[in-house]
From TrEMBL:
One of its GO terms (molecular function) is DNA-binding transcription factor activity. This is Glycine cleavage system transcriptional activator. It holds the Pfam family LysR_substrate. SUPFAM superfamilies: Periplasmic binding protein-like II, Winged helix' DNA-binding domain. It comes from Paraburkholderia caribensis MBA4. PANTHER family: HTH-TYPE TRANSCRIPTIONAL REGULATOR (PTHR30537), HTH-TYPE TRANSCRIPTIONAL REGULATOR TRPI (PTHR30537:SF74).
Length: 337
């Protein structure tokens, strides 16, 4: 709030001794100053004509660039000089040159146009770029999705993907999530869903570990009782499932070492700690490059219990989400780029 003192020229001397204070909102003063300053600014057409003419030092070339007549350029510059009360160009018979004040003004105008250009680009880029918020699991994200996501970014540089991880179910009604990758049987019918990859359980270990334990073969899977079994705390039942389906007896499915997540158990296996029960799709790259090997040929396919992309059905009409979904479905079990 501004307090302004008012006096009246036609008041008597006695009356002049009385001072009046009127409260004026600061925003009103700022608004008035803003509108006043805007009224005193030259037009953008005049400034643009000056910038081009000053850069090219030719009215004809400036007219060509602006796609107007030379007379129109000269008129805009004359209006600008009249408004500023400053001579910006020295005009010769066949050439023009900037005056010292014109040179200084041109440098400032160029910076101003660059600021406008940058602001406009930033605004349009912000509107053009769309961030998709995807929820996944830590191991699936790190071992499968992230190594392949660079191909999506190359194909769709205007779409950003924000990836978060959680073991908890997603609630699209209360959470700011566009889609989630979940391990389950076929999801409920109130969401859209697509099956992504098979969920196959296989024991894995490092090549060095297998060489140190040559008895780990299809002929003697019971030899697993003599080596550390590696578990993920979130998937403690996997060893029991595989051993039962493979018909292996005499091996305690809960023995061995446990880790907070599957990715830690897989890493321990690469370091020769023991044999991990893995989801084959999540160690496919390591199996391909030889970091991990499968000592047994039996694979437990868990059928419909696998990874799905789930999403609100209305997201299918969103171009950015549709692009991400189509890309995700197209890569299937393709190796990382």
């Amino acid at each position: 709030m501004l307090r302004t003192r008012l006096s009246f020229a036609d008041a008597s001397a006695t009356e002049m001794q009385t001072r009046f204070y009127v409260a004026i909102p600061a925003c009103s003063v700022q608004s008035a100053c803003y509108h006043f300053s805007m009224r005193t600014l030259p037009s953008l057409n005049a400034l643009r004509a000056f910038e081009v003419c000053g850069r090219l030092l030719s009215v004809q070339l400036a007219a060509n660039e602006l796609n107007v007549t030379p007379a129109a350029v000269s008129r805009q510059i004359k209006l600008l000089e009249d408004q500023l009360g400053v001579l910006l160009f020295e005009r010769g018979h066949r050439a023009i040159a900037l005056t010292p004040m014109g040179e200084r003004y041109l440098a400032d105008i160029v910076r101003g146009f660059e600021t406008l250009r940058t602001a406009t680009i930033n605004l349009t880029e912000a509107r053009r770029r769309r961030t998709l918020k995807i929820r996944g699991y830590t191991t699936f994200s790190m071992n499968w999705l992230l190594p392949r996501l660079s191909t999506f970014h190359r194909e769709h540089p205007d779409i950003e993907v924000s990836l978060t991880t959680s073991l908890q179910p997603v609630d699209f009604n209360t959470e700011d999530v566009d889609a989630a990758i979940r391990l389950s049987h076929a999801p409920s019918s109130d969401v859209g869903f697509d099956r992504l990859v098979p969920n196959e359980l296989v024991p894995v270990c490092s090549p060095e570990f297998l060489r140190a334990h040559p008895d780990l073969t299809d002929a003697a899977p019971e030899a697993l009782r003599n080596v550390p079994l590696l578990h993920s705390l979130a998937r403690r039942e996997d060893w029991a499932k595989w051993l039962d389906a493979a018909g292996v007896r005499g091996v305690n499915p809960l023995s061995g070492l446990s880790y907070e997540s599957s990715i830690l158990a897989y890493f321990a296996a690469t370091q020769g700690v023991g044999v991990a029960m893995a989801q084959r799709v999540l160690v496919a790259d390591q199996l391909r490059d030889g970091t991990l090997v499968m000592p047994f040929s039996f694979v437990l396919d868990q059928g419909a219990y696998t990874y799905y992309l789930i999403y609100p059905r209305e997201h299918l009409s969103n171009a950015e989400f549709a692009a991400f979904r189509n890309w995700l479905l197209s890569i299937g079990e393709a190796p990382a780029a």
